[in-house]
Amino acid sequence: MANEQITPPEVQTDDILRVNDPAFTLENVALVTGAASGIGRATALALAANGLTVAATDIDTEGLADTVDRAAELNLDGRIVEISGDLTVDADIETVVNEAATLGTITYLVNIAGAQHISPIEDFSMETYDHLHRIMLRAPLYLTKLCLPHMRDSADGRGCVGNMCSAHGHYVTADKVAYNISKFGLRGLTQSVAAEGDGRIRAFSVSTEYVKTPLVTDQIPDTAAQRGLTPQEVVSEVMLSESRSTEMMDPVEVANLFVFGLSQHGQHLNGGDLRWDGGMTLTY
């Protein structure tokens, strides 16, 4: 059982939240970034299971292909179309949006792609900072800028942007300055979209505790070596030390939050943050 805490799990159909929403159709497109693995893959699968066309993008082409293969294995009601692209390159971002627009009406944008680098501020490479910033904050802004006209020009002029924030968008831990800044910034982007959306285009963010994704689990061996702990001690004493939860979240649990938030059931969620952090930032 202990190993389940640090092994990214496969999405199963029974794990996916299904909602009744007349806008969840093949004609409407959800553009999902970071779709090659982890939360991005789970979200792409969950939205396709709810009948949407998903434009799945990532720089990892092999991972994207695996996401599409998994969708076929699960026999989902919607579809996933892979569009590879590098979110640090503006031309790629433009191509991704243009290609997504050929699949139907871009109605939903879900910014999930993320990266991590562990280093104290005085040793933090500015080149690395710029790279992480472009992926986690600048790209979501540019994607939003490009997708908003498609949402406004749709039949009902409605749309929604979902942003993957983090407990680190509410409080920070040491040695993650680029990640911390980006996640705080995403909450500002979310609220800015809500302020300009006239109630027809919504935006929300999702802030979670640690999730069993490759981005997280790949950090465990290095953290264990750095702190002289076992991998399981890293999970219990570092990652979950301030949470009331006893294990990390599964990616599909986060995906289900996006399904809910994008749907008509989230119609009053606008500019807000779904804080699903196991009490990490709210209890002592």
UniProtKB/TrEMBL annotation:
Among the Pfam families in the record, one is adh_short
What's a BP term from Gene Ontology annotated to this protein?
Answer: monocarboxylic acid metabolic process
Question: What family is this?
Answer: Belongs to the short-chain dehydrogenases/reductases (SDR) family.
Q: Which InterPro entries match?
A: NAD(P)-bd_dom_sf, Sc_DH/Rdtase_CS, SDR, SDR_fam
State what protein this is by name.
SDR family NAD(P)-dependent oxidoreductase
